[in-house]
Write a structure and sequence with these properties.
The complex is a heterodimer of chains A (254) and B (232).
Chain A (H helix, E strand, L loop, with lengths): L4 E10 L8 E11 L4 H14 L22 E2 L2 E2 L21 E5 L8 E3 L2 E2 L2 H10 L19 H11 L6 H5 L6 H12 L8 H14 L10 H5 L7 H16 L3
Chain B lengths: L2 H6 L1 H26 L14 H12 L1 H29 L17 H4 L1 H26 L3 E4 L2 E4 L1 H8 L3 H28 L5 H30 L5
Antiparallel strand pairs in B: 1-2
Classes of the chains: A alpha+beta (254), B mainly alpha (232).
Protein name (chain B): Succinate dehydrogenase cytochrome b subunit
Keywords (chain B): Membrane, Transmembrane, Transmembrane helix
InterPro entries (chain B): Cytochrome_b-558, SQR/QFR_C/D
Chain lengths: 254, 232
């Protein structure tokens, strides 16, 4: 692929802290290489801001190889930017051309309050996991991986759901700020396996109770979450979560 | 878990929406089927609405449909109130909106507009009930004699009402709103009640699209046919 340099205009959401009123700031960037990653481009801008004695833009990032779920920008109206099934850190500047204007916003949801600039607080996801996204096993030697036979289709579906990195793009894209795709992935990958069975009723009930408590909206099956998910988590998982929740809610004996 | 907790959880509320929605979908089959009796005149020139008037009479004269009618009104009201409650709750989850919106890149416009489409259907229903249900059940209608017995002439009422162009236009807006409400609602309700199986889900999706289009086309054909004199 041919290398080229470009000049860009960036409109970035700046907000000092959770209480402050934020707003867009416009920045000019020149000579950005098409071979940079999107976050490297923001790094260049931050270096520029530091040299000018300004406050650099705060944004989340960690592994920068698309597997940790930390990066989070809402780029030109789409979580993680224009590419399909991709995280912001894996977005590269060859997606843009000279003279482009790029608008960057934080995830917007009351359950994800802005900490600063493009950083949001996603600990609500941690609390949902704590409410039931686990299985209880005895410690000690690791058991034989093949001790319990598992149907290949179920294992594959479970693995596909387990690919969720908990980035929150689903919440950011959903018109209801619903966390159902995330919760459904976390419930599904355990519910599909025999190891997840002993706790499956309580898991669905407790995780949904926590999700509601955190102030996420409810699912209206629009499919926006699935369309923007960097790990292509399927909407089918939401139906499975509904199934798990209704099954548990209608049959628990307490 | 208390029942109250179950039905007030986010999924519990959606469960109520889905069940009432499916109930209303079933009602549409009955409604469109009975009303399609007006087209009997195309197959029997002596009909003059007799088959339709008898069918309409059956719906009012028998305790089974009368009981279902109470359930229907309850179902509609529950669907409406729960729908608005969910819409308001969902709208309150994002105090600061986006400058650039995702729009149609992630979902269909009608999937995101169920509140608006439902409101249009609801407004249409008010006019529709005032035009037909109220005179038929409460204030009374002119009678016609079929096979020596008196029947409410609901058929004549339809022809009169649909002479007004604005009424026909209003019914077509109502039909269009219902079409898009159903295109999303039909398949969404089955997802909400937990249909995971891919084979059944694709069957449901195809059925949903066919159902929405066929039912709405038949409904839309009624005011059009009567206005243009295809059904006299």
């Amino acid at each position: 692929m041919e290398h080229y340099n470009m000049n860009l205009t960036l409109k970035v959401w700046r907000q000092k802290n959770n209480k402050a009123k934020g707003g867009f700031e416009t920045y000019k960037l020149s000579d950005i290489s098409s071979e940079m990653s999107f976050l490297e481009m923001v790094d260049v801008l931050n270096e520029q801001l530091i040299r000018e004695g300004q406050d650099p833009i705060a944004f989340d990032h960690d592994c920068r190889e698309g597997i940790c779920g930390t990066c989070s920008m809402y780029i030109d109206g789409k979580p993680h930017g224009p590419w399909h099934a991709n995280t912001t850190c894996q977005l590269h500047m060859r997606a843009y051309k000279d003279g482009d204007t790029i608008t960057i916003e934080p995830w917007r949801a009351n359950a994800f309050p802005v900490i600063k600039d493009l950083m949001v607080d996603r600990t609500s996801f941690d609390r949902i996991i704590q409410a039931g996204g686990f299985i209880s096993v005895n410690t000690g030697n690791a058991v034989d991986a093949n001790a319990i036979p598992i149907n290949k289709d179920d294992a594959d579906a479970s693995f596909a759901a387990a690919a969720c990195i908990g980035c929150g793009a689903c919440v950011a894209a959903c018109k209801n700020s619903s966390a159902m795709l995330f919760v459904s992935a976390k419930v599904s990958h355990l519910a599909l396996l025999p190891q997840g069975q002993p706790e499956h009723k309580g898991r669905a009930l407790n995780m949904i109770a926590q999700m509601d408590k955190e102030g996420f909206g409810s699912c209206t099956n629009t499919g926006a979450c699935e369309a923007v998910c960097p790990k292509e988590i399927s909407l089918e998982n939401i139906a499975r979560l509904n199934n798990e929740y209704l099954g548990a809610g209608l049959t628990v004996n307490n | 878990m208390k029942w109250s907790e179950f039905f007030t959880s986010s999924i519990g509320k959606k469960f109520v929406m889905a069940l009432t929605g499916i109930f209303l979908i079933l009602f549409l089959i009955v409604h469109v089927g009975l009303n399609a009796c007006i087209f009997a005149t195309w197959f029997d020139s002596e009909d003059h609405g007799a088959m339709f008037n008898k069918a309409a009479h059956f719906m009012g004269a028998n305790w089974v449909p009368r009981l279902l009618e109470i359930g229907l009104f309850a179902g509609i009201l529950l669907h409406i109130f729960q729908g608005y409650a969910l819409e308001m709750k969902n709208r309150s989850t994002r105090s600061v909106g986006y400058a650039v919106k995702l729009g149609n890149r992630g979902s269909k416009w009608y999937s995101r507009s169920m509140g608006l489409l439902g409101t249009l259907v609801f407004l249409f229903l008010i006019v529709h009930i005032a035009q037909f249900w109220v005179p038929s059940r409460i204030t009374g209608l002119e009678e016609t004699i079929i096979d020596g017995k008196p029947y409410h002439d609901l058929y004549r009422r339809m022809i009169e009402v649909f002479q007004q162009p604005w009424v026909v236009a209003l019914y077509l807006v109502g039909c269009a709103s219902l079409l898009f409400h159903l295109l999303h609602g039909f398949q969404s309700s089955f997802r909400t009640i937990g249909v995971v199986n891919k084979r059944y889900m694709s069957l449901i999706q195809a059925t949903g699209v066919a159902f929405s289009i066929i039912v709405v086309l038949l409904f839309a054909l009624m005011p059009i046919s009567m206005h243009l004199g295809w059904v006299k």
